[in-house]
Amino acid sequence: MSQRIGIWGLGESGVGAALLAYKKGYDLLLVADKPPAPHYAQKLQALGLPWHITDKPEAILKKADLIVRSPGIRPDTPALLRLKAEGIPIVSDLEWGGRHFPPRAHLWIITGSAGKSSTTQLIAHLFRTAGRRAIACGNIGYSFCAALAEEPPYEYYVVEASSFQLWDTFTLIPEGLILTGLVPNHIDWHGSLEEYVHAKLHITERLPAEAHLIYAADSELLVQKLGSYKIKAHLWRFSVKAGEGIHAWIEGNKLICDMRIPDDTERWEVSYEATPLQELPQRKNALAAAIVARLAGLRRADLRRSFETLEKMPHRLEQVALINGVLYVNDSKATTTDAVWYALQSFERPIIWIAGGVDKGNDWGEILDIVRARVKALILIGADPDPLYRAFHDTVPIVERAGSMEEAVEKAHALARADDVVLLSPGCASFDWFRSYEERGEAFRRAVQKLRGEEA
Q: Helix, strand, coil: what percent of the chain each, to 5?
């Protein structure tokens, strides 16, 4: 008798898990609290897979032998806790995919509090530039399981992993794990900083001695917390500055990678000139990519060509328009204080900062100094702007509230002068006013384009 797999949630992760389970011949129970989006419904209907829409998933899922939980199902969900108490294994889509990973393929996982998506994109692009068949998947927007369901298998799976996906992985072991940094985040979801950190880092103890752990050595919280884990893997460190034990760093307008690995003792120097990697966050991501390139046996020319041909991710330090000397920048993907810090330090000119949304337990004090140095005005958005107001009203000369993205852009425009930057870098989740950070970024773009039309 075939094992019965319950799929809880029918978004990108859940539908991807269902596609993989169907391909492997499992019986399926598909459950969600709302109907799948039309394009997901079409995929399921094409395979003849029915689903149940209910606010009482427990009654159906208790018939499953194993449940694949979508990332949006919180650890403290009562139904999840009761199903666990009945002894039914519950895993994330990453764990489910890992249990069906092709034996000769390569798995690289990227996680951290900021920079995950852009680093994932860059490393997958690096492999493709070098002629390897690679895909970027996971939290970046295309399900890891859906990628695994494709034929033929890819050679390299480059997976962005969120803490929501990592906390209930148990057997997943990548060839390489990249940690982009750590700041307090998603405390509202995990319940405490320690639970958030453990969700991110417990995978490090599963890495075997032949695996590689690449991490940001200038992330103080990350370095501190890694000291609590028993790690057998090779350790490789990157930082914006050279230092003892650092294997990749930035020197002027160049990337330096000096690893001294067997059969490869060359010191790599790669210029950032004539590449899209002009802001510090992107240059730091490239340090991790350089280490991966060395470990995967790629050439320095492959790394350089990947830099030159990389396309910027939308909603990440995206320059939308220059209007009367004012630069409008869409950084809607910045949902942590770490991401905001990088955005603020990327510009030397005065910044009018648009921020707010669903606060995830951020420690805003971590960016107080750079806000004081760079921000001339703060426009607050979102249903509950009070945490940001309390954090910065004594620091920023002008703090105003807006009732919509359009109003926020209009207020910023009224305050801006030539050579200023209007920066949307929310530092918060988007789920109060918008369905996603993409929708929030699009609203900013539309408001700026409307403004440009009025100024023309």
A: 40, 20, 40
Which pLDDT score, from 0 to 100, does residue 401 have?
96
What is the Cα–Cα distance from 339 to 347, expressed in whole angstroms? 14
**Nearest alpha-carbon partner for 53 in 80, 29, 28:** 29
Give the span between the Cα atoms of 147 and 386, in whole angstroms.
Answer: 41
pLDDT on residue 112: 87
Strands of 350-397, DSSP E = 351-356, 375-381
- Rounded to whole angstroms, the Cα distance separating 400 from 380 reads 6
Q: Of 172, 171, 170, 169, nearest to 108 (Cα)?
A: 172
Q: Please state, in angstroms and rounded to a whole number, the distance separating the CA atoms of residues 104 and 184.
A: 36
Sign of CA dihedral 11, 163, 177, 175: negative
Query: Is the pLDDT reported for residue 190 higher than 70?
Result: no
Map out the domains of the chain with their CATH numbers: 4-88 (3.40.50.720), 96-309 (3.40.1190.10), 318-455 (3.90.190.20)
For tokens 């797999």, what's the residue?
A: 5
